[in-house]
């Protein structure tokens, strides 16, 4: 295995295609429930891959029978004694503030990662799983998949991304509220028709083949173009059109001077598809 492939306890990282990194949630015996180790490692993984020049695209999936059962509730309960010992509401709140901020930073790392992140979901994607997929660039699933914003059944408002990002992915605001307020399962066909996922595959095997092909296609493009597109789309989501036009003008005043632009324009003009871009 190349030294440029990070190694973790709760995530399995491989390189199935040139420049395509596959990150697998790897606690199959606990249906990929997210314990403290996994929350920490998710942040470390995407921060590391963001600056890894051998990585151009990242595909995330779950090992075993389902994508993820959400937060590891047993692990979460370990915070209870610490809270009980804290003197008063201000001290208890500080402990929770730190925990929530750490988890939020972990799930913002996919968005902050300069490389596109594609999620391939099979079977269940529950609770924190929906927070996670709301933070990636493109979602795919298999026919047996469902998405469940389960936090309401735990007596809490989701706090690591779903309520902030899902309404910007699904256009139907009433539907977002219904999903979050009832905790009902959104099945694959509904996820497709409402734009949460881009494609539904017959089964996990076909999904992984299909998603890796899409990732390979993206990885064959200029990394200057791909990283610029990701950054600018996220910027445009959060800013006005005017500000976003300024952002891309500032970006491209540098990036249009790159070798990638010159060689891609030449390849288009000469109808050549034999083009290799430097690592970024
Ligand atoms: C600051 C807070 C930040 C984030 C908060 C996020 C909130 C959420 O994520 S809410 C969602 C919480 N998750 C759930 O409610 C799901 C609970 N699990 C299930 O409903 C089921 O396990 C299942 C996903 C439907 C799968 O069922 P099945 O296939 O029958 O497997 P099981 O036998 O139930 O599970 C196998 C094994 O995994 C353990 N496990 C399952 N889910 C969790 C979990 N969320 N946390 C910890 N452990 C979990 C289960 O106990 C089994 O373990 P054994 O040791 O084999 O008993």
TrEMBL record:
Pfam families, A to Z: ECH_1
UniProt-recorded name of the protein: Delta(3,5)-Delta(2,4)-dienoyl-CoA isomerase, mitochondrial isoform X2
Gene3D superfamilies xrefs: 2-enoyl-CoA Hydratase, Chain A, domain 1, Lyase 2-enoyl-coa Hydratase, Chain A, domain 2
Family matches, as CDD domains: crotonase-like
Keywords in alphabetical order: Fatty acid metabolism, Isomerase, Lipid metabolism
Record GO terms (molecular function): isomerase activity
Cited PANTHER family: DELTA(3,5)-DELTA(2,4)-DIENOYL-COA ISOMERASE, MITOCHONDRIAL, ENOYL-COA HYDRATASE
UniProt-listed InterPro entries: ClpP/crotonase-like_dom_sf, Ech1-like, Enoyl-CoA_hydra/iso, Enoyl-CoA_hydra_C
Origin superkingdom: Eukaryota
Pathway where it operates: Lipid metabolism; fatty acid beta-oxidation
Keyword flag Signal: no
Protein family membership: Belongs to the enoyl-CoA hydratase/isomerase family.
Keyword Membrane: no
Source species of the chain: Nicrophorus vespilloides (Boreal carrion beetle)
